[in-house]
Amino acid sequence: MRVVIAGGHGQIALRLTKLLSDDGHEVVGLVRNPDHLPDVADLGGQAAVLDLEEADTDAVAAILEGADVAIFAAGAGPGSGNDRKDTVDRGAAALFAEAAGQAGVRRHIQVGSMGADRVDELPPEESFTIYLRAKKAAEDDLRARDLDWTILRPGHLTNDRGTGLVKLADKTGRGEVTRDDVALVLAGLCTTTAAIGRTLELVAGDVPVADALENL
Questions:
Q1: For 15-44, what is the mean pLDDT?
Q2: Most buried of 18, 38, 104, 197, CB within 10 angstroms?
Q3: How far is residue 64's CA from residue 42's CA, in Å, rounded to a whole number?
């Protein structure tokens, strides 16, 4: 299986690269900074230098050509300005999905954010609201496309060691989840057909990841 990950140097993406490559899969991580190439390679992946804020659809589709799965795990980050929340969390996500369709990559997984469905209840000008609004727009864009999509909304992310025990459902309620366990779920979603066309929430729980995926 060939998997292309947008946001390839992110904390979740690097964990996911190692999981997939250790399983014998070919992983390509899109990175903006050439200095990040060795970090991806050290975990068994390949890195392609591409800025999704500047690239066009053809350039992204060329990298996606021949892939089995496209995973959007990029984000502007908490320290970014409001403009970049739109150009990355919405714009880059839409570009990546468009390129996936152009390249014939049907399986598409997008990392969203818990609370995106409640954005209208939040103060409109706060930075976090603007971030969630961009995430929701990216989700709405993906749902309208003819792709085998899944949106995964993790809870509050932590760097604690993963437990492999989660709660994965259409609605979970708020909670925390480790980046290790998010990566583990993303790896499993690549081949979980029951997740296609669904928006799933993910928090820590008491169900092994393999069982949580099987029970969808």
A1: 97
A2: 18
A3: 21
